[in-house]
Amino acid sequence: MTALSIGKGIRLDTPEDLEATLRQIGATRYHSLHPFHRLLHGGKLGKGQVQAWALNRYYYQSTIPLKDAVVISRFRDRAIRMEWRHRIEDHDGYPDSEGGIERWLKLTEGLGLDTAYVESTEGILPATRFAVEAYVHFCRDRTPLEAIASSLTELFAPSIHEERIAGMLKHYDFVNPDIMSYFSRRLTQAPRDANFALDFVRKNARTQAEREAVCNALIFKTNVLWVQLDALYHAYVEGHIPPGAFVPKTS
Fold this sequence. Notes:
Elements: H1 15-29, H2 35-41, H3 47-73, H4 78-92, H5 100-110, H6 115-120, H7 126-141, H8 144-149, H9 157-171, H10 181-204, H11 208-237
């Protein structure tokens, strides 16, 4: 895993030091800074490229409940399991209420993708699959503290959701508010989740080594998100689509 690289010999003596460092990681490493997102939000992509992004991102979104189930399995503390459980419900939904996965499928359907094809994940990029599965393995194999810390990218999610909603509605005539409902719902869900995780790591990372591990977990997660965009850029902006991956229709 990537070593802590935000300052040689940095001291993390207090919870306040830890939080400040985590926020600095987000400010310098969050995937909102990636060139692909700037193209996406600025209206610089064609419909097929937007489809490719939504298709690949579906694999990440649909795997989040699996990741969260793994996190729950790491804790004997019932209160933590109960708190974390709502994340699964947020994505999977309830029998009479849609969740985030259904809202994401509403996006892909609105973009003109066949739902069965999206759910099959047959057309996703190899790097997407590898990165997402690495995230699940991280939460399974690292400490419970690191598993929770890896979710702290949610601290920075609301700003990218706001930018995405505004930018895509402004620039793409094939996008409407209804198919963007996933992002509008996350504007309230993500801060709630992030606040719990941040409070948890502040209280439970008590040593320099534990606080470094928390920071490294967040760096790992930003890498998971970043590499997915690297793959999208390489395939659908530079034009190097790997065998078996989704190929946008040409108009």
